[in-house]
Design goal:
By secondary structure, the protein is an alpha/beta fold. The chain contains 7 helices and 6 strands; from the N terminus they run ββαββαβαβαααα. The protein has helices at about 40-50, 85-90, 105-125, 135, 145, 155-165, 190-200; strands spanning about 5, 25-30, 60, 65-70, 90-95, 130. It has a 6-stranded mixed beta sheet. A hairpin with a 4-residue loop joins β3 (about 60) and β4. Residues about 165-180 have low confidence and may be disordered.
Length: about 210
C-alpha cells in the first residue's frame, strides 16, 4: 500500500475539535477541488493553515501517489453534514479522494479503496458500513464515483473487498486445481454478454467463454 504520511492538523482547532470516537463507519468523499496542485499533501497543508479555522475537516486525503493522515482515527472530523452529534460526523472516518487534474483518478480511487480495507481491518468495520457522504446528508458526494468515474460505487466496494481479502497482489498457488463459479448458461452470446454487463454494474467481474471451445 502507498505509504501514509502524517500531517496532523493543529489540536483543538476548529477543524480538529478533539472529540474522541471509536470509528464504526468509513465515509468516502471526492474533494470537488479540481484546481491544479490540489492533491493530498495540499489538502493536508490546508488543514494546518487557513483551514484549521473552519469546522470542515477529514481524516485522510488521497491522490494517485500519496495518502495523507490529517485527523487521528480516534478523533472526529467535521465532514458528513449530519450535525454536531450525527453518526457521520461523530462515528465515521472520512476519506477524501483528490480530483486535481494532474492526478490519475483511477489510481487515486484504488488507493482510497486499499486504505478503506486497511481501516476496516484496523477498526473491525464491516463493508456494509463503508458509505458515501450522500448517505449522511443527501449531498451529491462522492460525485465522481456517483457518476461512474473512474468506475461505479459498486465496483469501488468490490475493490475494497478485494484489498480486504488480499486479492490485489496476492500470490497465486503454483500447483493445484482452479475453481470457478458459474452463474448462468446461454445459447445466445448476446444474452450472455448482457448478463455479464449486469453483473459488472454490481461490482462482480466476469468473463464469457464458449463451452467446449
Amino acid at each position: 500500500m502507498t505509504e501514509i504520511k502524517e500531517m496532523l492538523a493543529p489540536a483543538f482547532s476548529a477543524a480538529r475539535p478533539g472529540y474522541t470516537m471509536v470509528p464504526g463507519y468509513i465515509t468516502i468523499h471526492n474533494t470537488a477541488n479540481t484546481n491544479r496542485g490540489a492533491g493530498a499533501v495540499s489538502h493536508g497543508k490546508y488543514l494546518s493553515g487557513a483551514g484549521a479555522k473552519k469546522a470542515v475537516s477529514y481524516h485522510y486525503a488521497v491522490d494517485d501517489s500519496a495518502i495523507v493522515h490529517i485527523i487521528p482515527d480516534s478523533e472526529n472530523a467535521w465532514h458528513a453534514g449530519d450535525g454536531a452529534n450525527g453518526k457521520g460526523n461523530r462515528r465515521s472516518l472520512a476519506i477524501e479522494i483528490c480530483e486535481n487534474p494532474e492526478s490519475d483518478l483511477l489510481r487515486a480511487t484504488d488507493n482510497a479503496a486499499e486504505l478503506t480495507a486497511k481501516l476496516m481491518r484496523d477498526w473491525n468495520i464491516p463493508l456494509s458500513n463503508v458509505v458515501q457522504h450522500n448517505h449522511w446528508s443527501g449531498k451529491d458526494c462522492p460525485h465522481r464515483l456517483r457518476i461512474g468515474e473512474p468506475y461505479s460505487w459498486n465496483t469501488f466496494l468490490a475493490r475494497v473487498q478485494s484489498f480486504y481479502g488480499g486479492g490485489q497482489g496476492a500470490a497465486e498457488p503454483e500447483e493445484g486445481p482452479l475453481y470457478t463459479v458459474q452463474t448462468g448458461a446461454f445459447r445466445s452470446r448476446e444474452n450472455a454478454r448482457d448478463y455479464a454487463d449486469d453483473l459488472k454494474e454490481k461490482g462482480i467481474e466476469t468473463f464469457v467463454v464458449q463451452k467446449g471451445a
